[in-house]
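Revision sheet: structure tokens.
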Amino acid sequence: MTDKPYPILFSEPMVRALIMGEKTQTRRLVSSPLAKLEAGRKLAVREAWRSPVILDQKRPVDLAEKMPRESVYYEASPNEDPAQGLPRAQAGRLRAAMHMPLAFSRLTLTLTGVREQRLLDLTTRDALAEGIIGRAGLYAHVGAWRFEDGEAKLVAPEFASEDPYEAFGKL
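Predicted:
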């Protein structure tokens, strides 16, 4: 088994769910190269990001060699925490997750298993492990909630449901 982490793409809401510990499994097509990996393999999370505005014209591959990871603004962490990277005010243009150099990945996951499952066989437990969050009897993916001062506020009610399974279907 190789030590080099395998790249895996996640959207902003799913990265937030990973950071919060709400997302513990993910689904990929059976034809995906991820389906052929073995348990124990490390996965490097690629997410939407920004480099400093003065480096907007540089290609991501060129930035990986010269720019420290602390200079990256992670789109899924808009809280201005210096430990999370570059402040938003200094960040340049948005760059797609697929173009994130592995050197800038801040999250490394460990693959614990691979199983084949039809999407229609998804259980409520699976939906919750996928990052569906429940508060006050409503369920929605993490991106539909805003968390401030320990409180959760539903900001995208169109993605909410009283059933976690239905909320997953609205992703």
